[in-house]
Write a structure and sequence with these properties.
Shape: globular
Helix content: 10-25%
Oligomer: single chain
Distance between the termini: 16 Å
Number of helices: 6
Strand content: 25-35%
Number of strands: 19
Length: about 350
């Protein structure tokens, strides 16, 4: 049988004729929104800078511009392959449910009818993680927020973000999505590393608990991990593998390591690229090619408008603030994404 070479993309379907097979595509994305705060002063968190009277002079106009910027980016992630906005988006650095509602109801996103799964985290900065999903594609059936308990060298509680897990039906197929924002590298990578190792251990416990109930469960964990794919949290704790040929039924696969080793990154600091924004998954999304959704490919979303166009930081993510000054950019992180595909009956 001749292979038909042409590839046709329309809406949420990837239809390429090969051996008379047609495939449906769904896009899973993650984006660090870089301090998406409203303008109100919440006395329970440290958001004083992000108010009209605060250091950042965070006015309503600047907030609405930020929402406009973020919604534009989200609407285009992965669209080169999929011709539509992502079906699932994990986000971090959102202040509260209200800013997420403003985001999904913006004219750039409103047509996609996104739902929101969100919990308030105890993080002292007042930033949370959340999952956005197209209601036409995904139906959440169970979700939970897992607390990461950390204590510093003085044995005092260090408050950070919870880890979110959402179980649901993606086109009637059960899939789990986890959203993370692990502890930062504040104070130095080595000094802060134990906190991220604890975050990795919690991630692993959550995955193991799901697999205990369903050994073949399909799980995608995404987030700003503040670690690269080659760091101990991924290699020693989670044992994420970069080669699909070396996976067994208990393995985790990370497509981002190959990108990182090619010099790709989602953020830059002191002339060094890091790939802190990652997605990884259980081997059931690799080893069951004929059973529902499976992994196709991953990428970093880097259109030119997201990059600083000139100067010392040319090519870096174009931020909202730089050097303490408002420049009206997007985020200090590039979004990342992956595509899932499944065979359709013709």
């Amino acid at each position: 049988m001749r292979f038909v070479q042409s590839v046709f993309f329309f809406l949420t379907f990837l239809s390429f004729a090969q051996n008379n097979n047609s495939y449906q595509i769904r896009t899973i994305a993650f984006y660090n929104l870089e301090n998406l705060f409203d303008t109100k002063n919440d006395t329970l968190i440290y958001d004083d800078d992000r108010t009209p009277e605060g250091k950042d002079q965070w006015t309503k106009e600047r907030y609405l511009h930020k929402v406009d910027q973020m919604s534009k980016v989200i609407s285009e992630i992965g669209s080169k392959d999929n011709r539509t906005a992502p079906d699932i988006i994990g986000v971090c650095e959102a202040e509260n449910l209200g800013v997420l509602e403003d985001l999904v109801h913006h004219k750039n996103l409103s047509e996609f009818n996104y739902g929101i799964v969100h919990y308030d985290s105890p993080d002292e900065r007042g930033i949370d993680v959340a999952l956005l999903y197209k209601k036409s594609a995904f139906v959440p059936v169970n979700f939970n927020s897992h607390r990461l308990l950390l204590f510093n060298m003085e044995d005092k509680r260090d408050y950070t973000r919870d880890q979110l897990i959402v179980e649901g039906l993606l086109d009637n197929e059960k899939i789990y999505f986890m959203v993370n924002h692990w502890p930062s590298r504040s104070g130095g990578e080595a000094r802060s590393r134990p906190f991220r190792l604890e975050a990795a251990k919690l991630n692993k416990r959550i995955i193991d608990s799901v697999r205990k109930q369903d050994v073949d469960s399909k799980i995608i964990s995404m987030g700003d991990f503040n670690d690269d794919p080659i760091d101990p949290s991924f290699k020693k704790i989670l044992k994420v593998k970069k080669n699909t040929k070396k996976l067994d039924s208990t393995s985790l696969y990370g497509p981002m390591e190959k990108l990182f080793r090619k010099g790709r990154g989602s953020l830059a600091y002191r002339d060094k690229w890091n790939l802190f924004d990652q997605l990884y998954m259980t081997s059931s999304l690799i080893n069951n090619p004929n059973e529902g959704y499976r992994y196709w490919k991953a990428g970093i979303f880097t259109p030119s408008y997201l990059m600083d166009p000139k100067g010392k930081y040319k090519g870096y993510p174009l931020r909202t603030y730089a050097g303490g000054s408002y420049i009206g950019g997007y985020s200090d992180h590039f979004p990342v994404y992956l595509h899932l595909i499944r065979k359709m009956n013709l």
